Amino acid sequence: MDITPWQKVKLARMPVRPTGLDYITKLFDGFLELHGDRFFGEDRAIVGGLAFFEEIPVTVIAQQKGRNTKENIARNFSMPHPEGYRKALRLMKQAEKFKRPVICFIDTPGAYCGIGAEERGQGEAIASNLAGMMMLKTPVISIVISEGGSGGALALGVSDRVYMLEHAIYSILSPEGFASILYKDAAKAEQAAKDMKLTAQDLYKFGIIDGIIPEPPGGAHNDYEFVMDRVRKVLKENLEELIRKPVDRLLEERYEKFRRL
After folding, report:
1. How confident is the model over 107-120, as pLDDT tens digits?
2. CB 72 within 8 A of CB 107
3. What CATH class has 5-259?
4. N or C: the chain end with fewer CB closer than 10 Å?
5. Could you tell me which residues are beta bridge partners of residue 148?
6. Quick one: which H or E segment has residue 12?
């Protein structure tokens, strides 16, 4: 069955889809969550910590949405503040020190753009993540599990391998925002979704992502185990390959990858 880009947007935003914590719980052993950015505070929109994947010690970081209004308020609807990105970078630097691969799960409509976030340096925090991930001396894999919006998503996406779930989206901003800016009418979001080329299929064709992870009929929420098995296979194959690479080669290939983009 063909699914339109707008239908994919709605699928990606469904609250019943697996969240970052679902992937952490299902795919990793011994997860120990770490908190705080050591500058300002804790941001619950980003979850991160230490874990084992197939007996390999890793650092795992995920943007986390809620299942209901209460949870979404607590998680700020998965829109990270600067301290969330600084926490993520702190954990990545720790992973580099102890030679642990980093695995990121991307799921955000975008970074929080409130006054407080801007006052605390939202743009600088995102830019620091982009620069920090580019030079990180350890393998990095990112997977867009639902919604990847703007710099808020890219701040966890400068990776050696970037994958998307079949019905996930990854774009410069929301279709509603795109339509309101370009067409002066947010109601034209459906047309914007088509024009933006935000689907996994489009992005794979353009060479922006490295692969597409299949979902069960109707979407990831219909069969969690199906999706977890596919993600586990992708992580295992890529980790085995990336861990064997010398650091200098890893950094050179990452640089060339993003220069091509």
Report:
1. 999 999 999 999 99
2. no
3. alpha beta
4. N
5. 108, 170
6. helix 5-12
Per-residue confidence (pLDDT) for residue 2, from 0 to 100: 80
Chain-centre distance for alpha carbon 132 = 16
Q: Which residue type occupies 193?
A: A
Task: Tell me the residue type at 107.
Answer: D
At residue 3, the 3 state secondary structure works out as coil
Residue-wise pLDDT tens digits, 78-107: 999 999 999 999 999 999 999 999 999 999
* 81, 120 contact by CB (below 8 A): yes
Q: 1 pLDDT band (50/70/90 cuts)?
A: low
User: What DSSP designation does 199 have?
Assistant: B
Contacts of 212 (CB under 8 A, 6+ apart): 163, 164, 165, 166, 200, 201, 204
Q: What are phi and psi of 31, to 5 degrees?
A: -65, 130
Calculate the CA dihedral of residues 95, 153, 257, 92 and round it to 10 degrees: -10
The tokens of 63 are what? 């943007």
Q: What residue has token string 């007996």?
A: 55
